[in-house]
Specification:
Oligomer: single chain
Helix content: 25-40%
Shape: elongated
Distance between the termini: 20 Å
């Protein structure tokens, strides 16, 4: 959802035609962990944990998958 030209321009308005690499460089500064965005597999693993036996006693909690990113 975030890998598109509009997002690239939003994160790198200083460049005429920013690329995904340019976006990732800028987005990496938003997270405490050294990633620009989570991968599909990261979300899938969290869902599988919650619906599997390992998550059977988890109720009423918010799981934040953000790589340590903070929204203002």
């Amino acid at each position: 959802m975030i890998l598109n030209d509009a997002t690239y321009r939003l994160f790198r308005p200083d460049l005429a035609e920013p690329t995904r690499a340019d976006f990732e460089e800028a987005a990496r500064t938003l997270n405490k962990l050294p990633v620009s965005a989570l991968e599909v597999e990261d979300i899938s693993a969290a869902v599988l944990y919650l619906v599997g036996d390992s998550g059977r006693y988890i109720t009423g909690i918010t799981h934040v998958l953000s790589a340590g990113g903070q929204l203002a």
